[in-house]
Amino acid sequence: MKDAELPYDRTRLNDNLAVDVNTILLRNQEFYDQMRAEVFLSTSVVHMSAKDKTLVRSDGGVTSFDKVFIATGCEAKRLSQDVPGAMDAIGMFYLRTPSDANAIH
Ligand SMILES: Cc1cc2nc3c(=O)[nH]c(=O)nc-3n(C[C@H](O)[C@H](O)[C@H](O)COP(=O)(O)OP(=O)(O)OC[C@H]3O[C@@H](n4cnc5c(N)ncnc54)[C@H](O)[C@@H]3O)c2cc1C
């Protein structure tokens, strides 16, 4: 996943902008260890081969799979793409990650 943190409840980011991500994790590391699930933080899948059943990660590694579930979600639309200079305005923030929330706080 691209995120730097274990999966968390994104909808709770606006409850408390000074959020500590450890308080909104969906599962802790122990859960993934018990499930023998390896979580690749700050890592994107950059290529998938359905034929070879492999994923190439942005860290250069390759992960094999039997089945793959793609749930890439969405990203905040960047205002600067449509309104040049908009993000230069003081007080303009995006809210999608814990670091975004902390920056607003
Ligand atoms: C502040 C805030 C409040 C919200 N409140 C509500 C609410 O009250 N009610 C509601 O219904 N919804 C709310 N939402 C929306 C809700 O968070 C989203 O609808 C939900 O997160 C979508 O979940 P998802 O798993 O589909 O996608 P996402 O949460 O976007 O997760 C997608 C994941 O895929 C990963 N990913 C993407 N591309 C790649 C790639 N190439 N390689 C590896 N990983 C990749 C990303 O890193 C991410 O971890 C809120 C959102 C925010 C930001």
From TrEMBL:
GO cellular component, one term: cytoplasm
Cofactor(s) the record lists: FAD
InterPro entries in UniProt: FAD-oxidoreductase/Apoptosis, FAD/NAD-bd_sf
Name of the protein in question: Apoptosis-inducing factor 1-like
PANTHER family named in the record: APOPTOSIS-INDUCING FACTOR 1 (PTHR43557), RIESKE DOMAIN-CONTAINING PROTEIN-RELATED (PTHR43557:SF2)
Alphabetized GO MF terms: oxidoreductase activity, acting on NAD(P)H
Keywords: FAD, Flavoprotein, Oxidoreductase
